[in-house]
Amino acid sequence: MWTKESRSTTFVPAGKGRKEEHAMLALRRRNPLWEDAEWPFAGLMPLTREMDRFGRGFAPATEVTTGENAWMVKMAVPGMELKDVTVEVTGNVLTVTGEHEMEEDKEGETTRTEFHYGRFERRFELPKTVNVAGVTAELNNGMLALTLPMMEEAKARTIEVKKGGNFFKKTA
Length: 172
Description:
Helices cover 17% and strands 27% of the residues. By secondary structure, it is α+β, with helices and mostly antiparallel strands. The chain has one domain (4-103, 115-149): Immunoglobulin-like. The strands form two sheets. The protein has a four-stranded antiparallel β-sheet with strand order 1-2-7-6, with no helix packed on it. Strands 3-4-5 form a three-stranded antiparallel β-sheet, with no helix packed on it. The longest helix is centred in the first third of the chain and has 13 residues, at 18-30.
């Protein structure tokens, strides 16, 4: 007979996230240029697995891509509606929060679920080249899509050098 206690300890995925962490560490050791490749979003992926392991929240799967004029961030938030998700930009920090409540099962008791329920919060430190005033967010079919437009690069300009006075001349 299944009890709530046996379900909570029996169906925990083993070693969740550990293989990915070790793979990333090995990649960084082999290729020092890897850090340069992930520079624009170095602070993007906060450690949220610990919260997930203890059932206090979850971290939606996230994908970041770089386009010609913008970065795109996609987050899988299945079952969430517009009212469930909030996106804020404060300074150079983008914060995405949401809450997915578990629906009561009218026909019986749930014996196993792999769906994620509860509250999440993801914080992303944005590169200085993001135009924060132009950030947009869309939710469609359980996928949250954020567009982070890049600022126009500062164009180099030539400074004319003029003949000046004698800097070493004593003044009275």
